[in-house]
């Protein structure tokens, strides 16, 4: 077990190793370094592959290391059918993406940096799906947002890439904060901080009065990450990233993180009216919006991006239905979508890389120049369209089996699904046929077949989509059934195959094909009609995001001008008002005011003399006509306190007080004289009275705190400790010195550092002022006089 834990930890760290090694490997080997870098995700894939037999038998794999046991925090992982499937998709497709990126970005000056980012992204996503502890899940969840920001904005010199990266970060990062609050609520409700233990607390969570709040917060995190309406707009804009990022992000990683979370929490938060209303509604709406917007596009990547939005909506809708067949359909479609969408995105990248354009209206007749690419595109399109003999066909048949019914709800969502699948059918063949069939046209670059690094990845995914369907029994045993079993938390045996089941689901499949062919036949007209409809509908959430960000910036600017007006007296006044409120209000509200002590009867004459000196010093400060006199007079108070320390038997403390007061007076005097501030106090009488009252209230507050502290019984535990160990441990007889230098040495060092930094800052200010005056004198010779 210890060996498995150590190996799993190493497998999770392999993407980080790849990120560190990538710049050096690419510098040495160039684009061929991709073959070497692909070893890291391949080894992780092979490691997770070892768990398939165990997971297929219904077992789970857990492990990790305790971090803060008192708070139940650990670096732990949890592998069942669902998390293992995602881990295999992330590392397996990640291996192909690394190879693909080596060919796609060949010769790019920042290729090493790109590989570092993609490996960090891979590691973050891998951490999300295997995390057992809530803390790990949230940390890796946010890391996916940060690393996707780096990848989307990789071409940072373009404004569109910077905007898309910022938009993705804001939307998904905001959702991450919602998720954090949801996880904290789940922790409070269930009392557990691990996913493996949370799964068994479904009844407790669903019966809690905070269930709906926790559900809405979790959905906020899942919907933003998986681009559900109305948060769908960031995902198509993320196409500003290089195609390897798009292919990876859309097939196996970030956009499916929300889907993974909903699948994982289905046993805990599912089977409630709120779950079964919100998820199908927003999922169905996202399905329709995504496919409709995909029809309008002419850019190959954008067409595929919007169909990813619709596919994610379909998955969320199926999870919300929650029936056995719906869970099976979600498991099948999860795998099928990863295979065909990754292949199609890489095909779109190949077309762009080898022809110089992704505009479908400028592409035609590529079949002769790029026959292998066409075959790969056609195979992936068959699976996306749900046609045999590909795995997408099995998923579509199971989807219709799950949705059909006689009630209004079932009929409505079945009609939505048929409409969405028909449009996805048309988009799939628009990508696979439009650029390749017809008469060849001139493109920015002469078309030719891609090198092996580019076509290897999509070819493998397309072939896997075929083999997974042909050998469906094996696929279900090792992959589909364990996924569905993990979602349902009950044994599920998926048995659908390429053999068609005569009935309503097959009829719906045939209707989908007929509608898809019709839309494909009239694709240009459908594109125009959709563009007209969208113009009539007005600006969408993408524009709303810009308006929201612009309004936020304006609000922040106005708030800053109110809170930070640039006047030091306002900052100081606010600080002392807060101090006064903290010191005065709690004792009054909670009845903790101290008792007034009796007037001391044994005050000696010389002690009265010291008190009078302090009082005269205070009067001198108040009546001083310039700041320098006030500063010198202010030092009298400190010297008087130092004398009191000396009279009461604390010479060390008295010496420290003398030094502090002397240095304070000298430094303040130097600063005031060098800055040449106004010598007179020009405050109006009302402001003087307010400042004086505030000073008295703060002084009263500190007095009350000290009086209350002295009322408490004296605890001499520290005194006894220091007396006992100052000599034996610190080798010093002077207890005060030992405390300052040894026992509190770090504290003293910090105080010295603060004083030193403050002195340097003051010196810098003085030099800046002196430099400005010299420049002014140089520009205006008359100013010297």
From TrEMBL:
UniProt keyword annotation of Cell membrane present: yes
Membrane topology field: Multi-pass membrane protein
Transmembrane segments: 31-49, 85-105, 112-129, 166-190, 210-235, 277-295, 304-323, 329-351, 372-391, 411-433, 453-474, 502-521, 568-585, 605-624, 631-649, 655-677, 689-709, 748-766
Record domain NADH-Ubiquinone oxidoreductase (complex I) chain 5 N-terminal: where: 69-115
Database matches in InterPro entries: CPA3_Na-H_Antiporter_A (IPR050616), MrpA_C/MbhD (IPR025383), MrpA_C/MbhE (IPR046806), ND/Mrp_TM (IPR001750), Proton_antipo_N (IPR001516)
NADH:quinone oxidoreductase/Mrp antiporter transmembrane domain mapped to chain residues: 131-414
Superkingdom of this protein's organism: Bacteria
MrpA C-terminal/MbhE domain sequence ranges: 687-767
Keyword line: Antiport, Cell membrane, Ion transport, Membrane, Transmembrane, Transmembrane helix, Transport
Residue stretches making up the MrpA C-terminal/MbhD domain: 613-676
Subcellular location: Cell membrane; Membrane
Pfam families: MbhD, MbhE, Proton_antipo_M, Proton_antipo_N
Protein name per its UniProtKB record: Monovalent cation/H+ antiporter subunit A
Species lineage: Bacteria, Pseudomonadati, Pseudomonadota, Alphaproteobacteria, Hyphomicrobiales
